[in-house]
Amino acid sequence: MRIDIISIFPEYFAPLGVSLIGKARERGILDVHLHQLRDWAHDVHRTVDDTPYGGGPGMVMKPEPWGEAIDAVLAADQDARPRIIVPTPSGVPFTQRLAMEYAAEPWLLFTPARYEGIDSRVMAEYGSRLRVDEVSIGDYVLAGGEAAVLVMVEAVGRLLPGVLGNARSAVDDSFAPGEMENLLEGPVYTKPPEWRGHEVPEILLSGHHGKIARWRRDEALRRTARNRAELLAALDPATLDKHDRRL
Ligand code: ADE
C-alpha cells in the first residue's frame, strides 16, 4: 500500500518509522511519502492560512497550496487514484470497519489540517473526481489532524497482510466484524499464575477450549455492558445465544 501525507509538520510523522509500522515500511509492505504543504505556498512567508469569510475566530487553510500539493501527489501515478482522507472533528467516525475498508485500498492520501480546517472548495474539487472522506477519530478536538493521521495509519497498517505476526489477532480485536462485532475484548493474563495475591482465573489454566471460549465471551459481554452500554444495546439479537441472553 502507498500512503501520502501532506502537512505543514511532516516531522510529526517520525513515529511511523518505529515498531510495527516502521517494520512494515522496511519490508516494503507500506510505502509512506511525506510532503511539506508550504512547498506549494509561493509568497515569501510561505503562507497557508487566511481569515475566514463571514468572520469568526481562527484561520482557514487556503485552497491554492492544497490544490497544488494534491495535484502533485496525484501526478505521481497516472494510472491509479488515491482515496483522500481529510481528518476533521466534523467527519464521519473512524471505526474498525472503515480501517478494514482502507486496508483494502492500494493508495491513501491524508490531508491533515491545522487551524479551523481547509477551505471547503478543496474537498468539493477532488470529491467530484475521487473518493474524499472527511473522518473524525473521536468526539474531541485536537490541535491539528496530524495525530489523527497517526492513529488511522496505525489502525490500517496493522491490518495489511504480513504486518501482524499472528493474523488471528486482528480477527479477535474489539470491534472486528464477525464474532467480536460491537463487543469489547475481555481481560487477558500471562504467567505467573499468581502475582501479589491475584490469581489468574482458573478456567484459563484448565486447557478446556470450549469452556475458555465461553468464559471469554461472557467477559466480553460484561465489559461491554459496563464500559459501553450503547454498544450492547446495538448488538444484533440474532448473534446472541441462550447463554448470552441469561447474562
Ligand atoms: N482534527 C482535530 N480534531 C480531530 C478529530 N477528533 N478527528 C480527526 N481530525 C481532527
TrEMBL record:
Reactions catalysed according to its record: guanosine(37) in tRNA + S-adenosyl-L-methionine = N(1)-methylguanosine(37) in tRNA + S-adenosyl-L-homocysteine + H(+)
Subcellular location: Cytoplasm
Domain tRNA methyltransferase TRMD/TRM10-type stretches: 1-232
Predominant location: cytoplasm
Matches recorded under Gene3D superfamilies: 3.40.1280.10, tRNA(m1g37)methyltransferase, domain 2 (1.10.1270.20)
Domain of life assignment: Bacteria
Binding site for S-adenosyl-L-methionine: I137, G138, D139, Y140, V141, L142
Signal peptide residues on this chain, from the entry's feature table: none
Alphabetical list of InterPro entries matching this protein: Alpha/beta_knot_MTases (IPR029028), tRNA_m1G_MeTrfase_C_sf (IPR023148), tRNA_m1G_MeTrfase_TrmD (IPR002649), tRNA_m1G_MTases_N (IPR029026), tRNA_MeTrfase_TRMD/TRM10 (IPR016009)
Record has Methyltransferase as a keyword: yes
The entry's keywords: Cytoplasm, Methyltransferase, S-adenosyl-L-methionine, Transferase, tRNA processing
EC code: 2.1.1.228
Biological role stated in the UniProt entry: Specifically methylates guanosine-37 in various tRNAs.
Stated family: Belongs to the RNA methyltransferase TrmD family.
Subunit structure: Homodimer.
Name of the protein in question: tRNA (guanine-N(1)-)-methyltransferase
